[in-house]
Design brief:
Number of strands: 43
Oligomer: single chain
Structural class: mainly beta
Radius of gyration: 36 Å
Number of helices: 3
Largest sheet: 30 strands, antiparallel, barrel
Length: 749
């Protein structure tokens, strides 16, 4: 091994290199040679006098280094190095440390937690965070791509290049099939990808089972959330008949990715959806010549963000006409713009909005203008706003509307010792002859709040206020109010007491005086005691009391009356859990209402994670009869799962509802799932759904039938499509037409 210089190393070297000992029983001479190599390289690198790198490269090797300081050339064999989160390996190595340029060749491997790559040669430019891999292949984990794919991605290319914002490849192939001879792969002459944006491929071929099925000169693949799937979608619905949908991405200009989706529907005709993104926003248009309505349908949406000097603006517009998804004879549009001016102490905002909706001979219009300013100056916080509202309703023979200004101001000043002084003002001013929409006006309200420990009462809060209040709609009532409020708690919470007996008391007192010589005080208390006799066993008693005394002319201060005792018992006996809950109303005879609430008896059996059975019986002590019986069963066997839920009505002697769901029943390569929701009171199904999936190794053939007859329109359809396993997808199986889960009986127990 040849050494150019043997001077001592400097500790401030911008790169850290070390030589690992090949064996604990190596000779002393080998240890000396390795140590000298490290000292020589560290000194030479320090003498280069380059600025320290933010992400240095660290070398670990068991073979000799050679470094020539004059030519700034480092060489080595059997190199192992670490850069960022990557482990680099190569049979041979060359590098120029002053330029932060390194070359690994002959058996190159690059490994991290989410990436495995290998190739003939790797060029690394650490200063620019740029790299080039020649004749390489890579295996990318889903996490490496931000979980945009659910399966591993396998790449091969004659040349890979990448930096922080862009990846380029020449002569590349890509697939998510992990077989030696994949079922399918995409190949392209060139590829350019921007993570989270798009991938542009040129001279593209799709090969399936060894046959080239598609050749296109240019393909754009969106890489953003919410983009249309690149695979076709076919099926049947009651509104559209048989249909097929397909989306094609395109690049209008640099940074302007778009897509065109074509919907060919048996009953509706051809619909075209154009979605165009650009640097500051996006535009979407959907055009359909509806054959069933014999009318043109148009839906559009535009969003734009623009910075004008220090002002940030946002613009949005929506338009909808004759959409068969809503009303056929309907036209609606919305416009909105927001202007925001930030400053070191706060921000000022201005927003304008207008919406119009017309159906047949009826139309309504609403307009809103809002100006808001929020500031913080030392201990003073301010929030000022003014809002103009205008509502107008039109029909053939009438025209009505209201207009008003809403003025609000809030000033909050922090005093010493957890004390706050606050001034609130709210005012509704009608415009013209229109009345006030309604609401509470503070003209104004001044309040002083402080922590109770200032007066020696911990865990409490005190508040004094003076206010002139106005409320009502057509008839407005104005009163002055002087109020004092004190609320807090005492005792230990459940978490603090754990398995020890616990007692917690929450209390509240409020005294109010009004300018019409009326007064009212309010007492509110919640006292709870809990005694545990096991990890999941115990008894809880609670007393809730709420009652106002006197009279309040303002609805703001009026409350109900309650004096309630409640109890809950929980027992755990092995795999069984039992519980009972009920309450008694001490004001029942005075208010002429039922004394007892329903007595709920719950029984749960769960011997393992894969099996759970629950039942709830509800008994009415006031009428001495059973009100309902609910039960559900969840059983997981292998990769399959069974869910069964039912509700029985003893008063009507009939099953109120039944729910059955079976997930992922396997038979060979097929998986079958189905569910049914039955309404016993209406004697009809609320939902019937079935899903059949056939495994094609790296893809799936999926057939989905959904029938949700209830709702604004009947949601019935059949969909058949092929889905790549690697592409994330959202299935409608198990959901209603508004996105709500089907079958929620078990969540009520």
């Amino acid at each position: 091994m040849h050494f150019v210089n043997s001077e001592p190393a400097l500790l401030s070297a911008p790169y850290s290199l070390c030589a690992k000992r090949t064996s604990t029983r190596a000779r002393d001479t080998k240890r000396t040679v390795a140590l000298c190599a490290v000292l020589t390289l560290r000194f030479a690198l320090a003498e280069a006098q380059e600025p320290p790198q933010q992400e240095p490269i660290e070398f670990e090797t068991s073979r000799a280094f050679q470094y020539n300081r004059a030519s700034d050339l480092a060489q080595g064999e059997s190199i192992t190095a670490r850069w960022r989160e990557y482990l680099l390996e190569g049979t041979r190595f060359e590098g120029r440390t002053r330029h932060a340029e390194y070359r690994f060749f002959e058996g190159v491997r690059l490994t991290s937690e989410n990436l495995h790559a290998q190739g003939a040669e790797l060029l690394l430019y650490t200063r620019e965070r740029r790299w080039t891999l020649l004749d390489g292949s890579a295996e990318l984990m889903p996490a490496f791509m931000g979980n945009r794919l659910r399966e591993r991605l396998y790449l091969q290319s004659a040349r890979f290049e990448g930096d922080e914002n862009r990846i380029r490849a020449e002569g590349c192939t890509a697939t998510t099939c992990g077989l030696a001879h994949p079922h399918f792969h995409w190949s392209a002459q060139t590829l350019e990808a921007m993570p989270g944006e798009r991938a542009v491929l040129r001279e593209v071929r799709l090969t399936v089972l060894g046959r080239t099925l598609l050749r296109v000169p240019y393909v754009v693949v969106p890489l953003r959330e919410g983009d249309d799937s690149p695979l076709p979608d076919a099926g049947y619905t009651a509104d559209e008949g048989f249909y097929i949908r397909y989306a094609v991405a395109y690049l209008l200009a640099r940074g302007a990715l778009g897509s065109a989706r074509f919907d060919l529907m048996q009953k509706r005709g051809l619909g075209i959806n154009l979605q165009q993104r650009y640097a500051r926003g996006d535009l979407s248009l959907y055009l359909l010549r509806d054959q069933r309505q014999r009318a043109d349908s148009l839906t559009g949406r535009w969003q734009h963000g623009q910075k004008i000097g220090a002002i940030q603006t946002r613009w949005s517009a929506e338009y909808r006409r004759n959409s068969y998804l809503l009303f056929g004879d309907n036209t609606a549009w919305n416009l909105r713009t927001e202007w925001t001016l930030p400053s070191p102490s706060g921000q000022t905002g201005l927003s304008l909005a207008e919406s119009r909706n017309r159906t047949g001979a009826f139309a309504n219009i609403s307009r809103t203008l809002t100006l808001q300013d929020t500031r913080r100056q030392g201990r003073l916080q301010s929030d000022l706003s003014g809002e103009y509202l205008e509502l107008e309703n039109r029909s053939r023979d009438s025209r009505t509307g209201n207009r008003q200004w809403n003025l609000r101001a809030s000033l909050r000043y922090g005093l010493e010792r957890n004390t706050t002084l606050q001034l609130d003002f709210e005012r509704y001013v009608p415009v013209g002859e229109s009345g006030v929409f309604g609401g509470l006006e503070r003209l104004p309200e001044l309040s002083l709040s402080m922590a109770g420990r200032v007066l020696g009462v911990p865990d409490s809060q005190l508040r004094l206020s003076i206010a002139r209040l106005t409320e009502g709609f057509q008839t407005r009532l104005t009163r002055e109010r002087y109020a004092f409020e004190w609320q807090g708690r005492a005792g230990h919470s459940r978490r603090e007491a754990q398995n020890q007996p616990a007692l917690l008391w929450n209390y509240r007192f409020r005294q109010s005086f009004y300018s019409d010589e009326t007064a009212q005080y309010l007492l509110q208390s919640t006292l709870e005691g809990r005694l545990a006799f096991g990890a999941r066993s115990g008894v809880s008693l609670r007393w809730n009391y709420l009652r106002p005394y006197g009279y309040s002319p303002l609805g703001l201060d009026r409350t109900g009356v309650s004096n309630l005792l409640s109890a809950e018992l929980r027992l755990q006996l092995g795999d069984w859990n039992l519980s009972a809950q009920s309450s008694y109303d001490l004001f029942a005879s005075e208010k002429r209402r039922d004394s007892w609430s329903l007595l709920n008896l719950n029984l749960e059996y769960q011997p393992a994670e894969w099996l759970r059975w629950r039942t709830q019986l509800s008994y009415d002590p006031n009428r001495e009869r059973w009100r309902s019986v609910q039960s559900d069963l969840r059983w997981q066997f292998g990769d399959s799962r069974l869910t069964l839920a039912a509700r029985y009505d003893p008063e009507r002697a009939r099953w109120g509802s039944l729910f059955l769901r079976v997930d992922a029943l396997k038979w060979g390569r097929s998986r079958l799932s189905f569910l049914a929701q039955y309404n016993g009171y209406l004697n009809r199904f609320e939902s019937r759904q079935m899903l059949w999936v056939y495994d094609l190794h790296c893809a799936e053939l999926e057939a989905r039938y959904i029938d949700n007859p209830f709702g604004f329109r009947r949601d019935t359809g059949l969909q058949v499509f092929i889905r790549l396993k690697a592409l994330p997808s959202t299935s409608r199986f198990g959901y209603g037409q508004f996105g709500q889960p089907v079958g929620t009986i078990s969540s009520e127990l």
